[in-house]
Design a protein that fits this description.
The chain is an alpha/beta fold and about 350 residues long. Helices cover about 35% and strands about 20% of the residues. It has two domains: about 5-65, DNA polymerase, domain 1 (Orthogonal Bundle); about 70-355, TIM Barrel (Alpha-Beta Barrel). The protein is built from eleven helices and 14 strands. Strands 3-4-5-6-9-10-11-12-13-14 form a ten-stranded mixed β-sheet, covered by helices on one side. The chain has a two-stranded parallel sheet with strand order 1-2. A two-stranded antiparallel sheet has the order 7-8. Bound molecules: S-adenosyl-L-homocysteine.
C-alpha cells in the first residue's frame, strides 16, 4: 500500500508516464484520468472500459483511493462534516456547505496544523503531516460523490475553499498541483476562479501566488489590528508582522484581474479584538496600506477548551459600521455547522480523539 502510487494525485502527463511504464498505449492515460476525475470512480474494478487484465494488474502498483470516511456528521443547517482517515491513520476533515446560489466544499490542506493560533481548535492537534495532492483531490471526489451521487454533475457547480485544517501555504506545491488537477476540463473542471485559499500570512507564498496568472482567489486571516495583539493571537505574526504582510497584500492587489477576489478574515473574539477602537485601528491600517479588499467578520466559533466567546451580534454590527464609515467594505459571515464542529476553527477530529491518541 505504501509503495503504491495514488493515481488521483497525478497530472494527466504523469499518468502518461505511468501507463507507458506499464507497457500500455498512451491513450490509457486519458481513459484513467477520465475515470478518476470525471466519473469519479474510486476503484479500478469499476473502470470497465479498461481491459480486464489491466484492471486486475493496476492494484499491484497503484491505487484509485486512499482516504476512507470514518464518520459523517450532519448539522441542523444542512452542513456536513466528513471525518476521513489517511492510509497511515491520520484524520482529514472536509466540510460540505449547502448554499442558496452554489454549494461550497471546504477542504483541508494538512492533517492538523503547525500554526498556534490561540482561537483555533485545529492548533491543538499540532501538525500531523501535510496532505499530498492526491489526498486533497480525493476529499473533493468523496464529498461530491456522497452529495450528488457517483460521477453526477453538481447541479449548480461547486465552489471550493481551502479553509479547513492546516495552513495551505505551508503545503504550497501539493496545493497548487491539486488545483491544477481539479481544473482539467475533462476532469472535475473546478477552475481556480471557483477556489479561494486562506492563509494566516506566509508572506513569500503570497508573493509567489501574485506571480501566477491562473490562480485561486486569496483570503488573509488577520484577527488583530496591531502587532502586539496579533503576536499573541497568531504567533506566525512574529515571523511576518503586519507591515510585511500588508505590503505583500498591497502588491497582490495590484495584480488582481477582473473577477478575482481578495478578502481579509477577522475572527471576532468578545472583549479581545472587537472594540470601537480596534475597528478604527483596523480601518486605518488597511487604508494606510492603500488596501481595498473587503473584510469578512467571522464571529468566533467557541469550542472547549478555547478561552474565547463570540462577540455579540450588536457588537459585530457596530464594528462593521465603523469600518464602513472609514470606507472599508465589511461583511458578516454567518456561522455554519457549529453544532457538529464543522465551523471555522472547529476542525479537530472531534469525537475521534481516542483513535488519534492510539495512533502507533
Ligand atoms: N490556516 C489558514 C486556513 C484556515 S482558514 C488560515 O489561517 O487562514 C480558517 C479561518 O477560520 C481563518 O480565517 C481563521 O482565522 C478562522 N478561525 C479559526 N478559528 C476560528 C474560530 N474558532 N472561530 C471562527 N473563526 C475561526
Amino acid at each position: 500500500m505504501n509503495s503504491s502510487v495514488n493515481l488521483v494525485g497525478l497530472s494527466e502527463e504523469e499518468l502518461g508516464a505511468f501507463v507507458e511504464q506499464m507497457g500500455q498505449p498512451a491513450y490509457r492515460a486519458r481513459q484513467i484520468f477520465d475515470a478518476l476525475h470525471h466519473r469519479r470512480l474510486q476503484s479500478f474494478a469499476e473502470m470497465t472500459d479498461l481491459p480486464k487484465d489491466l484492471r486486475e494488474r493496476l492494484p499491484e502498483t497503484a491505487t484509485a483511493a486512499t482516504l476512507t470516511v470514518e464518520s459523517r456528521y450532519v448539522s441542523e443547517d444542512g452542513t456536513r462534516r466528513f471525518l476521513m482517515k489517511t492510509h497511515d491513520n491520520l484524520p482529514v476533515e472536509t466540510v460540505f456547505i449547502p448554499e442558496e446560489r452554489r454549494d461550497t466544499i471546504c477542504f483541508s490542506s494538512q492533517s492538523g496544523c503547525p500554526l498556534q493560533c490561540t482561537f483555533c481548535l485545529t492548533a491543538q492537534l499540532g501538525l500531523l503531516r501535510s496532505l499530498t495532492a492526491g489526498e486533497i483531490v480525493e476529499q473533493i471526489i468523496i464529498v461530491l460523490n456522497d452529495t450528488y451521487g457517483v460521477g453526477a454533475k453538481p447541479p449548480r457547480g461547486t465552489n471550493l475553499v481551502g479553509m479547513g485544517a492546516g495552513e495551505p501555504f505551508l503545503n504550497f506545491d501539493s496545493l497548487m498541483k491539486a488545483l491544477r488537477i481539479m481544473a482539467a476540463p475533462h476532469g472535475l473542471f473546478i477552475v481556480p476562479h471557483r477556489v479561494t485559499v486562506s492563509t494566516a500570512g506566509i508572506v513569500p507564498r503570497i508573493r509567489e501566488l501574485a506571480a501566477i496568472s491562473d490562480r485561486p482567489n486569496l483570503a488573509i486571516s488577520l484577527a488583530a489590528p496591531t502587532n502586539e495583539m496579533r503576536d499573541e493571537l497568531m504567533p506566525i505574526n512574529r515571523k511576518w508582522p503586519l507591515e510585511k504582510l500588508l505590503e505583500a497584500c498591497a502588491e497582490f492587489e495590484q495584480t488582481l484581474k477582473p473577477g478575482e477576489r481578495f478578502t481579509f478574515e477577522y475572527v471576532m473574539l468578545a472583549g479581545v479584538n472587537d472594540s470601537d477602537e480596534h475597528a478604527r485601528q483596523l480601518a486605518n491600517l488597511l487604508n494606510r496600506h492603500n488596501l481595498h479588499a473587503k473584510v469578512n467578520l467571522i464571529p468566533h466559533n467557541p469550542a472547549d477548551p478555547l478561552p474565547y466567546q463570540p462577540s455579540a451580534a450588536d457588537r459585530v454590527e457596530r464594528f462593521k459600521a465603523i469600518l464602513e464609515s472609514k470606507g472599508v467594505h465589511a461583511f458578516i459571515r454567518r456561522p455554519r455547522g457549529r453544532d457538529i464542529f464543522a465551523a471555522c476553527g472547529q476542525l479537530a477530529a472531534r469525537r475521534e480523539m481516542n483513535t488519534l491518541a492510539n495512533r502507533p
